[in-house]
Amino acid sequence: MSETTQAHVEDAGAERRGGAAPSNRGRVVRALAWLCLWLLLATTSTALHMFTWVWATPQAVLGQDSPAMKKAAGLAVLPTVPGWLIVTRLNGGLDGRSMWFAFAASAVGWMPWVGGVWCVLQVRRAVLKRGSIRRSADGASASSDVKSTATSPSPGGVDLSRRRLLVDGAGFSVGALGAGTLSGSVLVAPWSVGVRQFVVEIEGLAPEHEDLVIAFISDTHFGPRVPAEQIVAAASIAARMRPDIYVLGGDYIHNGPTYAEGAAALLEPVISSGNCVAVLGNHDNYFGATEAVVKALTKHGAVVLRNQTVYVDRTLRIRTDAPPTGEAALALTGMADLWTEASDARGALRGVDERTPRVIISHNPDLAEHADFVRGTSDQPKLRADLMLSGHTHGGQVRLPLIGQPIVPSDYGQKYVSGLAISPGGFPVITSNGVGVSILPLRFNVPAEVLKIRLKRKRSG
Q1: Best CA proximity match to 248, nearest among 173, 192, 303
Q2: At what angle do helices 99-142 and 156-187 cross, to 10 degrees?
Q3: Centroid of chain to Cα 242
Q4: CA 191 – CA 441 distance, rounded (Å)
Q5: What's the confidence (pLDDT) of residue 20?
Q6: At residue 96, does pLDDT exceed 50?
Q7: pLDDT of residue 170
Q8: What is the value of pTM for the model shown?
Q9: Could you tell me which residue, 57 or 100, shows the higher pLDDT?
Q10: Which is it for the CA torsion 188, 236, 290, 276, positive or negative?
């Protein structure tokens, strides 16, 4: 081996030995940076969760709501939902008021996101490195012909720049599209309340009740996710309809009795009309909130129905006793929640004249499939129902093209997810998308809404 060649080999070996330590230090620094990013995201999500679920609760009840913080917390918690599900399962239950539980859920939830970004960057690095190696090989080949190299510029630099532009551009476009869609679904879409209208024909409806209008509000979910301004907007929209009857479909609060009084107060323009009936939803019965919710709604003027019936008389006023025989009457039957209470349709309709039209109010639309409304029993006939109003499903909150709503809290899939459906008993069931959000703090192609239902007499033939 020549002295020159040996010198080159020795220099290369020294370079490798000298560069090993800096290279290892670089890896450690990068690993620490990724670890810090993961901990920062988990800590931020935990802080936002604790602020909206625990620390700010008294202020929210007193009217000092924090809509911006609630929306920011929703945006931060959404990527961590799998972590919450995993930690809840491992813990044997949800403990949303525990800071350590929230941190564990956030840390687990952010882990695949941080790891995913790291993998994407590694792929990017490998793609660009491959282009760089190819460029070096082209350069080595070109050096054997100095004349050719001098007269023909190497395209290697251009190719590498183009490759970097394509890779970075594609990654940025996909990331921007995903981030924009996610942000819009959390920060914008859930907080615009619309109106959806239905006309329902009812057999035997009295002439006095022709064109009777019902405003239906459901699933306000006042709490750490839904700001007060959202519920105020829904109540204002319903009041501007100037309906004859207000119906409230349950789930006024999200997580416990602390918010009960505030939830009822926000619906004051609706409840104080004196012509408002309400049923309870599953969230109204969680965390021992039942009596607090009933007390708050009753205090502000709503008639809370739990397997009970009231009537709309010929003057369009609500009364607890049946109008005299022969007078116009429309029964409003409110059911106890199907998930958390004992629904008793026969008990609720006991004493109601068979000729009297009935509007059934059930938080959960699955009640429409109950045997009492479908076929009766061996010793009891099928119950008459002319219309059922429900909420609970939130319309699925997310509707994807071609797929529909992937998550629906119903035993009957997408049948009762939103809008009008016909039950096995032959009566229409109208399900509202609701006003607020629940587990997932977002909406996509499923707007929040207040329903306007107009009743018409069914014409013979």
Answers
A1: 303
A2: 160
A3: 29
A4: 11
A5: 56
A6: yes
A7: 67
A8: 0.84
A9: 100
A10: negative
In angstroms, the Cα distances linking 232 to 222, 269, 442 are 11, 9, 19
DSSP string, 303-359: EE-SSEEEEE-TTS-EESSPPPTTS--EEEEEPPPTTTS---HHHHHTT--TTS-EE
Question: What residues have CB less than 8 Å from 447, skipping those under 6 apart?
Answer: 189, 192, 193, 194, 433
Percent of the residues in the chain that have a pLDDT greater than 70, as a whole number: 84
Q: How far apart are CA 459 and CA 461, in angstroms?
A: 6
Band of pLDDT at residue 144, cut at 50, 70 and 90: low
Amino acid sitting at position 390: S
CA atoms within 13 A on the CB side of 95: 14
Which residues lie across from 194 on neighbouring strands? 449
Are 179 and 313 within one domain?
no
**Predicted pLDDT of residue 6:** 53
The whole-number pLDDT of residue 143 equals 56
Overall domain count for the chain = 2
Q: Do residues 333 and 427 touch, judged by C-beta distance below 8 A?
A: no
How does pLDDT run across 233-271, given as a tens digit for each residue?
999 999 999 999 999 999 999 988 999 999 999 999 999
Using the 3D structure, point to which of 187, 205, 228 is the last residue of a domain: 187
In the β-sheet with 428-431, what is the strand arrangement from edge to edge?
A: 318-319, 308-312, 330-334, 358-361, 387-390, 428-431, 419-422
Tokens 């809008």 sit on residue: 419
Residue whose structure tokens are 């061996």: 378
Question: Dihedral (C-alpha) 344, 348, 352, 355: value to the nearest 10 degrees?
Answer: -60
Tokens 């006042």, residue? 222
pLDDT of residue 304: 98
pLDDT in tens, 187-204: 777 899 999 999 999 999
Residues in CB range of 453: below 8 A, 6 or more apart? 197, 198, 199, 200, 213, 214, 216, 387, 389, 430
Whether the pLDDT of residue 378 is over 90: the answer is no
Q: What are phi and psi of 353, to 5 degrees?
A: -60, 135
Query: What range does the domain containing 447 cover?
Result: 195-457
pLDDT at 326: 82
Q: What is the mean pLDDT of the chain?
A: 87
What would the mean pLDDT of 82-104 be, rounded to a whole number?
92
Q: Phi first, then psi: what are they for 255, rounded to 5°?
A: -150, 70
SS3 (DSSP) at 116: helix
Angle between helices 228-240 and 67-77 (to 10 degrees): 110
SS3 (DSSP) at 179: helix
User: Are 136 and 230 within one domain?
Assistant: no
> 358 and 316 in one domain?
yes
Residue that is last in its domain, among 187, 214, 247 = 187
